[in-house]
Amino acid sequence: MRITVDGETLAGEAGQTIAGVLLAAGRRSWRRAPSGAPRGVFCGIGVCFDCLVIVNGVRDVRACRRRAQEGDIVTTQSRTEAP
Amino acid sequence: MSRHVVIVGAGPAGLAAASAALRAGAEVTLIDAADQAGGQYHRMPPDTYRPFRVLDRCDWWPESSVWSLERHDERRPPRVHVLTGPADGDGRRRRFLDPDALVLAPGAHDRTLPFPGWDLPGVFTAGAAQALVKGERVVVGDQVLVAGSGPFLLPVAASLLEAGTRVREVLEANPPRTVLRGWGRRPWELAAQPDKAAELAAYAARLARHRVPYRTGRAVIEARGDGRVEEAVTARLRADWSVVPGTERTLSVDAVSVTHGFTPQLELPVAAGCVLRDGFVLVDGDQATSSPGVYAAGEVTGIAGAPAARAEGLVAGWTAAGGPPSELRLTRRRRDRARAFGLRLAAAHPIGQGWPGWLRPDTVVCRCEETSYESLCRAASENPAARAVRLASRAGLGPCQARICGPTVAELSPESPDPHHRPIAQPIRLGELAARSEAAEKESTP
């Protein structure tokens, strides 16, 4: 299963969440907090909202909750910029 | 016509509630936000997924979030508003249910106290480390420090070891005296929980086999690194969790997995109008809450582990379905014993009052809004009302809506706020909110 993240193709196993694919690819962080500090997964079960990403144009998707689907286009998002 | 019981949460408590309600002759709708049943306890990768048989006999709604409970008639359970579709997607299906009885079994999540650097990537809750290994076959790091308090540290360390990670140390913040006194009180009750004791012994043996030190009275008090965790500072603690000066040690790690206990997910019980006691949903011997037709089971009534959750679920599902109370004597007894285990757990692994000593003025307390300890204290000194503290410091006003920092802010504020009432319990997009919702009665009638 392949998804693209900010234009880069990442391979994942079927059934992994987007967070799982990103972590397995060695990425630790992909979001910026209001100060610009990097954020990735913290709670892993959909509570903390630290891992938000844009999936196929839809913002604020919890990467740890969304199962990655073949061809998903994921873009990282930041709270330092306006949506 | 049989009673219609709606159960929210398909972890050990919700699954048990579903099977008991079915056995009592009810028609059951079981709802969970995940696409697989089992909750965090039974989490597993999709290819090893083993379906629970009870799902075949009820109306099973996976990938469905209850975003609101609407109380329209004080004598009846609230209307249950549900969104079905991919997590945080748009255009999800919006439905509602008007059950004869409602069982709430939403579970709990990790409580993590703040410390300098806890917002660095590479710091994970213990639940995250566990969920990623169990559900995704991903490890949080190669050199991991597992720290905090409670028996949950052991299975987390064990599953990391199993996945090939090097666990550097497992740190229990409470001193041996507190742990032993908590577990050792009323020993005859412990004898009734041989499974738990055997489970813990097996984890301890696994740590020993991998030569992982398990230390008590020691905690992670800082994480450091440039953009990600590179090292952790640990220190010896007094019984109240204040740091013993001069005992700091630096450990080179690439991840820290930390938990200081669990926080019940109270959004739905609060929305249903359930009375709380000591931060948990108050239930009677039938698992009935103070709200008519609303039952609660599992970690929302007290943190006591899966056996207690299952037993509570059986009682809740059975009574919600109108089953005769006399048939549940043994289950009730099992539930009461399992609950006693929960009290013991709380006594053995309390959070010490001295932990704010770990914080520095610039330590982030609210991760979403990056509220610092200093600005939270300043806001609280200007106006201690919970609402004023939130508005002045922005603590709890970010995307997670205080799910993570809420208990911490409450402890650090002179006036403890009540658990938040969130009329919207789960994220819903404005377009979805505006869309017409359909009654789901037709589907739930066989």
Automatic annotation (TrEMBL), chain A:
<keyword id="KW-0472">Membrane</keyword>
<dbReference type="GO" id="GO:0016491">
    <property type="term" value="F:oxidoreductase activity"/>
</dbReference>
<dbReference type="InterPro" id="IPR042204">
    <property type="entry name" value="2Fe-2S-bd_N"/>
</dbReference>
<dbReference type="InterPro" id="IPR036010">
    <property type="entry name" value="2Fe-2S_ferredoxin-like_sf"/>
</dbReference>
<feature type="transmembrane region" description="Helical">
    <location>
        <begin position="37"/>
        <end position="58"/>
    </location>
</feature>
<keyword id="KW-1133">Transmembrane helix</keyword>
<keyword id="KW-0812">Transmembrane</keyword>
<dbReference type="GO" id="GO:0051536">
    <property type="term" value="F:iron-sulfur cluster binding"/>
</dbReference>
<keyword id="KW-0560">Oxidoreductase</keyword>
<protein>
    <submittedName>
        <fullName>2Fe-2S iron-sulfur cluster protein</fullName>
    </submittedName>
</protein>
<dbReference type="Pfam" id="PF13510">
    <property type="entry name" value="Fer2_4"/>
</dbReference>
Automatic annotation (TrEMBL), chain B:
<feature type="region of interest" description="Disordered">
    <location>
        <begin position="412"/>
        <end position="446"/>
    </location>
</feature>
<dbReference type="InterPro" id="IPR051691">
    <property type="entry name" value="Metab_Enz_Cyan_OpOx_G3PDH"/>
</dbReference>
<protein>
    <submittedName>
        <fullName>Thioredoxin reductase</fullName>
    </submittedName>
</protein>
<dbReference type="InterPro" id="IPR017224">
    <property type="entry name" value="Opine_Oxase_asu/HCN_bsu"/>
</dbReference>
<feature type="domain" description="FAD/NAD(P)-binding">
    <location>
        <begin position="4"/>
        <end position="313"/>
    </location>
</feature>
<dbReference type="Pfam" id="PF07992">
    <property type="entry name" value="Pyr_redox_2"/>
</dbReference>
<keyword id="KW-0560">Oxidoreductase</keyword>
<dbReference type="InterPro" id="IPR041854">
    <property type="entry name" value="BFD-like_2Fe2S-bd_dom_sf"/>
</dbReference>
<dbReference type="InterPro" id="IPR023753">
    <property type="entry name" value="FAD/NAD-binding_dom"/>
</dbReference>
<dbReference type="GO" id="GO:0016491">
    <property type="term" value="F:oxidoreductase activity"/>
</dbReference>
<dbReference type="InterPro" id="IPR036188">
    <property type="entry name" value="FAD/NAD-bd_sf"/>
</dbReference>
